[in-house]
């Protein structure tokens, strides 16, 4: 006869306690959007009414704040002073925030605060960093790779070509005409 299973002998916890534990665990590592938390609760089969009630309560007491989440996301990943990580352009940040369930109005409001000069400086920093690894390729290939890198990070084509052309010239290299 197998030994008794201690987990099987424990009565089922009530869904609200389970949901509260899930939410607190999720918020321990970093801030999360309401949609991310809602999706996590749904994946753990927490009943919708319990999830909504707890999400509302967590929002009410300030543990869930989509606007604050969006601001910290942009500060960490965007082109400004704090955006030393990926240095994404506002367009790419907008897509990420929308995928995380942030309301369009909040996304617009937060991204309107991004300084266009910071965006250009971030693009220049990315190009300078990448340019070091392109010393052995011809200028046409370097231009293509640099513009492609900036475009994947959400920078507009006009800014991409302007920055790449100027940074190649500063490095005594020639950017081909568009």
From TrEMBL:
Q: Does the keyword ATP-binding apply?
A: no
Q: Which UniProt keywords apply?
A: Cytoplasm
Domain named RecX third three-helical is located at 118-161
Biological process per Gene Ontology, one example term: regulation of DNA repair
Instruction: Report the superkingdom from the record.
Output: Bacteria
Q: Which residues form the RecX first three-helical domain?
A: 19-57
Compartments where located: Cytoplasm
Q: Which residues form the RecX second three-helical domain?
A: 65-111
Q: Which Pfam families match?
A: RecX_HTH1, RecX_HTH2, RecX_HTH3
Give me the segments passing through the membrane. none
Listed PANTHER family:
REGULATORY PROTEIN RECX FAMILY PROTEIN (PTHR33602:SF1)
Family the UniProt entry places it in:
Belongs to the RecX family.
Q: Kindly provide the name given to this protein in its UniProt entry.
A: Regulatory protein RecX
Q: Record the organism.
A: Nocardioides dokdonensis FR1436
Q: What is the lineage of its organism?
A: Bacteria, Bacillati, Actinomycetota, Actinomycetes, Propionibacteriales
What's the gene?
recX
